[in-house]
Each structure stands twice: as C-alpha cells, then as structure tokens.
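Contributing new records

If you add data, match the layout below exactly. Sequence lines come first and carry their own label; structure lines follow with theirs. Keep one chain per record. Anything else will be rejected by the validation script.
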Amino acid sequence: MLYGAAYYHEYQPYERLDDDIRLMCEAGFTVVRLGESTWASWEPEDGRFELAWMERIIDAMHAAHIKVILGTPTYAIPPWLHRKYPEIMAQNASGVPTPYGGRQNVNFTHPTYLYYAERVIRKLISHFAPHPAVIGYQVDNETGSGALYNPHVFQQFVEYLRKQYGTLDCLNKSWGLTYWSHRLSDWADLWLPDGNTNPGYALEWHRFQASLVTDFLAWQKNLVGEFARSDQFVTQDLQPGHNRSESDTYQIGQIMDVLAVNPYYATQDRMGIPDSSLRTSVPRWLDVEKTGVAFGTWGLYQSAQFAYGSKQSNFLVTELNASSIGESFMNYPSYDGQWRLAAYAYISQGANMIAYWHWHSLHYGNEAYWGGVLGHDLEPGRAYNEIAQIGRELLKAGDILTDLTVDADVALLYSQDSKYALGFQPCLSIPDTDLPNQLSYQTIFDTFYKAFFDARAQTAIVNPQQGFENYPLLVVPALYIAHDLLLKRLVNYVQEGGHLLLTFRSGYADQDNTVRPIRAPGLLREACGLSYQEFSNLAAPLPVRSNVAEFVMSADAYATQWADGLQIEGATPLVYYVHPHFGKFPAIASQQYGKGRITYCGTLPSAELALTLAQWVMQEARVEAVGAELAPSVRAHHARTRKGEKLTFYTNWSWTPHRVSPILPGGRDLMTNEPITSEMPIELGPWDVKVQIR
C-alpha cells in the first residue's frame, strides 16, 4: 500500500527538506508525488532547463526509502510561453481566448503547445526515468480546459464527423437535418457549435471533446513510455465522480496502466449518517446541485467506485483532504477520526494508494487556504497526528490491504452519452424554478446510487462496454442514449435470470440522439410489460400509495419532478400516485420476464421512496443487505485479499460509540490482532473504523 502526499519543496518559505522527510518517515509515508505544477521551474526560459533542484529532492527521498511519482508539468504553462505564443490559449464559445493567470487555460491540441510540451516531457522523463526512486508517472493533471472552440479545433471536428459518418447523406439522416432547413450539401456548411440547437450535433460535439482529452493523454503516455522502465507505471488523476464534462473516465482508464482519482469530500457533519447535510456548508465546487460532485459518505464511496469501475481494477488516490479544502471563507477541517474513515473507505473499495494534497499549506497563491498535512506554521498538528496514525497502521498491515477484490452484488450502469444528452436537453428543471437542470443525468443517477448505499448494498459502477451479466441486480438510471445492441443485452440479461431496475428516460433515443419512432420504452417495452405515450414534469412532489402488501412505504415517500404516464401491459403496479389526474398511472411496476425480473420506476423518487424501492428489488433479487442489523450510522463493506482472506471494514459515521456484533464471527482485528468472536463485540468509537480479517 502506497501512502504519502504531493510534495512541493519549491513552495516552502525556507530550506527544510531534511525536516520534511523526517516528519514524512515518522508518519509512515512511502511515496510522494512531485513536479506536476512547476513547468516554469523546470524551464525558466525558452530552451533553458534546470533539473538539479529536483535531483536533490529525489535523491533525498530515495535515501529515506520514499518512492516518487513524477508528474509531467503540462497543465500550467510558464508566462514566457504565453507571451511568445498567445495563440495557444483555449478559446470559449464566443471565440474569446482564455486569459493567462490561472491553469488549464491552454488549447492542448495546438501544434505549438504540443511542441513545447513534448520538449519538456522528453527532457524530464529521459533524465529521471533511470532513478531508482521513481516508480511511476502522472501525465498532466485533472485534464481539461473546458470545451475547446478554437478555429482549428472546429476543423478537426469536421474531419471527425467525416470519419464517423462517412457521407453527408448519412449525417443529414442521423441528425434529422431537414428540420429548420439545416440539411448540409457540403461539409463546409457545418455551423459553429456555439450556435447549435441540434441534439445529434451536441452529442457528437461532447464525444469529440472527450476524445481530444483521451488522445492528448494517450500521446503523453506514449512519450513517457519511450523512456519509462518496465517496472514503472503511467497514470492520470481525474476529478472525482462524474468527472469533468469534457473527460470520459472510461476512455481514459483504458489507456492508462492504472487510473488515479482526486476525490475530495465534504467533512464534519456532512460525513454523518443519517445524513446531516443541512448543518454544515460545503465549498462551492462540492455542491452537488451546482456541480454534480457528490458530497457526504455515499459520495465518498461513489467516487471510489467510479475509479475502480473504469478498468474494473485497483486504482490510486492521488489527492485526498489533508485539512480544510475550502476557500478563505469556507474552512471545515475534519473532526477527529474522519481522516481514518475516509482512507479506509477508499481502501475498502480497491485503492492501492492514499495520498494527500498536499504536504504543507501554502503561504501564497490561489490555494493558500487549501490546507496541507502541515499547517501554515509548518509544525505537526491534529491533521498530521491522525494521518501519521494511518501511516503506522498501513505499515503494520503490510501488503494485506493491497490489490483487494471488492465484493459487489448490485451494479449501476453509467452512460456517458446519456449524461451528455441530458445536459443538452435536460428532462428535469431546477426545483422551484423554471430553469433547466443541466445535471439531470447526475441527479437521477445519484438518487439511485444513494438509495442502494442507504439500503446497505455492496455496489459497483459499470460502463456499457463492460460486462454486467454476472451481477444479480443491475440498476440502469436514465439510459436515454442507447444503441439497439445495448438494449437487447439488457433484455437478454433479464431473460437469463437477472433483475433489472430501469428508470424513466431509458431507451428513448438512439446512439445519434434521435428519439425512437416507437412507443416508449422502445425495445424494452415487452420485457417491462408496460409502455407510455406521454410524460409530465411535476411542479410539486406527489404522495404515493402502495398497490401490493409487500411494498411498504413510509409517510415521507413521494414522487418528485417527473411522471411517466405508464400503461400496464402485463406488469404488476407496485406504487400509484395519489392525485386526481396522475392517480390513473402507476409510478412503479414490475414483471417477471424469462428467468428474471424487470422493475420500472417512472418517477424521480424521494429519498424515502428510493430506499424502499432499493430494498424491495434487493429482496426480489435475493441480494443481501450487508449489516442490516447494525445501527444506522454503522456500515460494513466486504473485500478479499490477494490470498483470498475475507475482510470486513466496519465504519461508524457518527459521534455515538457502538458495540458491534461481527457479521461473520472469527478471525482477528487487523490492527490489534485481537480475536473477533460472537462473544466479543467490536468496539467502535466516534468516527471510528475497524477491519476484520478472517
């Protein structure tokens, strides 16, 4: 297990390399991440390189037995490069260049930029690759500059379309360009994306932008690969969860040796279970309703499963909260115990590295109030002490927690295309407004993810290109964009014995973002045993009533924001709306089909209704809720070691201590080596974690 932090000795206010390394060793650090933010230090003037300052740092790390992940410094260009070649800056939809002064503001497809990026990459990697301390490389950093609207990028888009569609006739037909007289007679007729209103165009534009990011990272990986040793890896660190709008987590995962993620999370009361999200504010970029980044405990696990799911393999955590991660006016450092909870949560989901951003709090710059392991006084404090405790525990555990196989019975299918399409033509509005919710897909997906987290399911996130057939329960939220072949796979999954939970807006449009000219839900209609011809947004939540005795709901169960006008064609209605008009339509229905079952949810359920639905389908699919007998704030997650040993991670997300009877008696406490039996309960303090191995 790799454990450490991003380290920027070049940012320290005075010489303290030896002191930093001593404190790292005392904290159990085994790895540092270096160099990704300092192109101007590597190359202070055009063609003049300075490498000795980093040689000294890497040599010192090696002497202390601390490994190094070296970053390519391409996401923040030096001022001289901007001054000489201002044309390399990214342009927005209005054609205005991004001003210098921040980061990730460059058009990374521009030939001039690529020339200088290649030169600095070759210089650094060729020099440091032989160093025994260097175990891997991070290419770029949270890659993306927003959508690139530079003129030559648009011409690349035209060529991309020619390859995708072949002929103008095919493009015209696929996008329905007879509408509003948009039919093209020449490739030169294609209009610029800032004026686009066509859904097919919008979907391909997003796919194209994502491909630019993927191609850029693949280009960097290939460059690094010319010099990297066979025992060194290449990674890319992604933003958590739904990621940047112009980046595709699955695509990037396929080209990297191992994927990394920077999963910051909300702290203090936001980490509590039951959810106490109203008691603590979060930084603007962690507000799920505005950014799509999930907060709270469920979001922490979700971000880990996005990372694991991209390659269906172990991943790295390259940036985790070291202290307060807000801004100068938004400071919420973790409560005691919350650092350990977060670290072990990610490890339980397959993380092979935990690293913090960053070692010391900066004394200048935009991120001066993004706290490090050490505060501004550069002395060990509460954050350092708990992070050091984790380090000592990981050293004691050795390799037991590395390369874990994560147990999962419930898979959630993630559709990047549907995220794009429902961002362009959202189905939901922002509550209490007449404004579109451009995070409609994220909202629907997260509603169902959180429901299964609350139902104590062991979940995984899969992509359409991956296998999902072996999971007994498959949840498919808002699969708006889907090829016929994918829909047929879903039908076959049910016929062969799987339980499919399908939501509204699924199967509605094809791979070109064209609405299918058949009654919804299209190719899934027969398997669902229902159809609909109309749908409605809901101006206010509607109460619901159960139609079958076994579907027992609380009084707080509501249908919100959306209602399909479902017509039953063999399925059994489970839930109806309570309303003089909508009451004629079921909100949720289910039917046996082949050897399996398909359950359809035609509304966005409230948290209480979503939880009831998750529990019902889990019972029908014979999926066990892990730790159902535990207190609400206590959770348990299973994984297996490389040797096949069973691990259970018990976590307490509250101030209240709990005595926990082990789910599976036997084995021992991984940290204390004390035996675990039915007669010896597990003691969990406030915000505490224990790991059972058997």
